[in-house]
Specification:
The structure is a single chain. This protein is mainly beta and 311 residues long. The chain has one domain. The chain has 1 helix and 19 strands. Strands 1, 2, 3, 4, 5, 6, 7, 8, 9, 10, 12, 13, 14 and 19 form a 14-stranded mixed beta sheet that branches.
Length: 311
């Protein structure tokens, strides 16, 4: 049996971001195997008052679902069980380890994460590097109030696609990141995405030098001469980033001013810093790569101009 169910059409790498509340993990095998009790799409609950809005103790349990990278809902679930583990922001494991196995419908339960903590959701890949249907490591940043219960993972066959469309060459000492600019309400729940925005990383140069910065056209990174800002989907991409802390800012006016961004504790600032703890070579899967996904959250109304073209 293939590691994942093959989707119709051509495989392609997407930077659509699926970020969720994550916690101490329990196998989903005996908990709502038909998916009736959770794991929905963007209309799912927020997982409690969290992220600086009054949570005490631990976050409520949530059912999450592993899906194919191009999937839009639970119907794209990954049938082969995968280990899912919670990592500190520096990439180290919790002590004792916090992990689970997804079941044959891609489900696992997030439970027991202390309020006020952040974490990476790490899903190690399964299968040999020679098989295009094998999966490779994914890393999604926990966003406890986002409202999304889907975790996307990718296959070996997709790895070269982004390099082809974005015209860059992967460096094993670096890592690619896919992300999006969202708007959020007062609770941190994502309400939309920001088009015609430019993303600055680690300074005031755009594009950021030596990173193969790209924007996403549809589901794939494209070249700078084609697209130099987000489409209405808000997606952006960096082909080669060194591991470590990186600071992101979002502008609608070519860097004259920067938007207010929601911080992990619920406050706002003009930039947000994210620690990317691994390089491609650090993947635990046989195929040495990572799918790294996160979101940058804009506070307030959606600043997308009416003139911004549709994707």
């Amino acid at each position: 049996m293939s590691v994942v169910k093959k989707m119709s059409g051509t495989f392609a790498l997407t930077a659509f971001v699926a970020l969720t509340s994550i916690a101490a993990l329990g196998c989903g095998e005996d908990e709502d195997p038909e998916g009736d009790g959770g794991g929905g799409g963007n209309d799912a609950g927020t997982g409690g008052e969290d992220g600086g809005t009054g949570c005490t103790g631990t976050r409520p349990d949530r059912m999450l679902t592993l899906i194919q990278v191009l999937g839009q809902d639970e119907n794209a679930f990954i049938s082969t069980p995968h280990k899912v583990q919670l990592l500190h922001l520096d990439g180290t494991k919790f002590d004792p380890p916090v992990e689970a196995m997804s079941n044959t419908m891609g489900k696992f339960t997030a439970k027991g994460q202390p309020c006020g903590t952040e974490a990476w959701i790490h899903v190690p890949g399964v299968g040999p590097a020679s098989d295009n249907m094998s999966t490779y490591d994914s890393l999604s940043l926990s966003a406890p109030d986002s409202g999304d219960n889907l975790i996307r993972i990718s296959t070996v066959g997709t790895a070269a696609t982004a390099e082809t469309t974005g015209k860059f060459t992967s460096d094993p000492e670096r890592i690619a990141i896919g992300a999006a600019v969202y708007t959020v309400d007062g609770t941190g729940r994502r309400t939309g995405s920001v088009g015609c925005a430019k993303v600055y990383m680690d300074g005031d140069m755009h594009p950021a030098p030596n990173t193969d910065q790209r924007y996403i056209s549809g589901v794939l990174p494209t070249t700078w001469d084609v697209l130099s800002m987000t489409q209405r989907s808000g997606k952006f991409y960096f082909g080669n980033v060194v591991k470590g802390n990186h600071t992101f800012k979002v502008t609608m006016d070519d860097g004259a001013t920067f938007l207010d961004l929601r911080q992990p504790d619920g406050s706002t600032a003009k930039s947000v810093t994210i620690n990317v703890p691994f390089a491609r070579k650090d993947a635990t899967s046989e195929f040495k790569s990572f799918l790294v996904l996160f979101g940058v959250d804009v506070v307030g109304g959606n600043p997308t101009p009416a003139s911004c073209p549709e994707d």
